[in-house]
Amino acid sequence: MRKKIFILLITLTTCQFLYAQSNSLKDFPKGFGPKEVGKRLAYRFLDRKHMLHNGKWISYPETFNWSGALKYAALTRDKKLLSQLEARFEKLTSQEKELLPIMNHVDLNMFGSLPLELYLITKDKQYFEMGMPYADTQWVVPQNANAKQKEWNDQGYSWQTRLWIDDMYMITIVQAQAFKATGDRKYIDRAAKEMVLYLDELQRPNGLFYHAPDVPYYWGRGNGWMAAGMTELLRVLPQDNKDRRRILEGYQTMMKSLKAYQKPSGMWNQLIDEPDCWAETSGSAMFTYALITGVKRGWLNKEEYASTARKGWLALVPYINEKGDVAEVCVGTNKKNDKQYYYDRPRNTGDSHGQSPYLWCTYALLEK
Fold first, then answer.
1. Does 17 reside within a domain?
2. How many Å is the maximal CA-CA distance in the chain?
3. Distance CA 108, CA 118 (A)
4. d(CA 128, CA 232)
5. Is 14 within a domain?
6. Does residue 251 register a pLDDT over 60?
7. Average pLDDT of 45-74?
8. Domain assignment of residue 277, given as a range
């Protein structure tokens, strides 16, 4: 009898554990639900001034904040939000046309991912025609290219290659969007080839990434761009792509390390491996997005990683203030071979560097 009771208890405990795991990314306390959080963040974007690159063009943080709000609107079928986001974009084709980024740098070409997102949602050809040149020119060497840029091109890589970890979201996202919009394998195949280059050059044995080959620090948001970039690529990369296994391996190795470095609070630090560094929201949100997606897509073991993803989300939400602005966001950060530089970076509230990945988390949680 005791043996039967023991077996029954073990069975019940196992079932309860499996139930908890299966619902850990679905059931949240009041105020933490992805739909309500996403609505606060997406509508907040409508009230924001433009965040410009060099004071001239729509910046990559604004681009990703915008596209994140669009994806949220489409997923939740919020027609009012979608209409308002599209109306704001229409200004870029008229009175704000000078704010459209030029196509000569990795941080500017990524803008094409935004009109391509609008095309994927609305099927309006004007968005396709606006977005595709940004994807195409990443692999068209300009006449004034320097010797190193030409060398990258000769090897089949983007002439915009520079081996900064940020690039693996900037390049990946626009090429992935072009693939989704056209079905042409060349876009996703060349993005995968580029990703393997960065994995080979920058990922360390512990799974994390240096900011650049000459900057041996594990900067949070930089690693976040890499985590999110691999996630976006794996979402659409065909199973028969020759580089998929290598990229999945790099992703899983990184997620294992991030699980180990997650703070008891659920956050990750500005320098991931430095216990005395401050908790930073944008990188933490990017890691959480990658973890949520990996669990839901089956790239990660649910029993091992679902609780890590949930812990990250529950830690992130309290950083959103009453206006819908995310606090403790590291400002834009160039590479520098100086550890103290990363400790001393200013922190913003409401910076699109942070607003964007929070939105990614909301639609990742809402996806079936």
1. no
2. 83
3. 18
4. 20
5. no
6. yes
7. 96
8. 28-138+150-366
Which of 368, 367, 366 has the alpha carbon at shortest distance from 35? 366
Percent of the chain with pLDDT over 70: 94
Q: What is the mean pLDDT of the chain?
A: 94
Distance CA 346, CA 326 (A): 14
The CATH number that applies at residue 237 is 1.50.10.10
3-class DSSP state of 171:
helix
Give the count of domains, the chain: 1
Q: Residue 334: left (phi > 0), alpha (psi -120 to 50), or beta?
A: beta
Q: What is the Cα–Cα distance from 168 to 228, expressed in whole angstroms? A: 8
Does residue 2 form part of some domain? no
- Dump strand ranges (E) for the chain: 52-53, 57-58, 329-330, 347-348
How confident is the model over 108-144, as pLDDT tens digits?
999 999 999 999 999 999 999 999 999 999 999 999 9
Rg, C-alpha atoms of the chain: 21
User: Considering the domain boundaries, does residue 156 fall inside one?
Assistant: yes
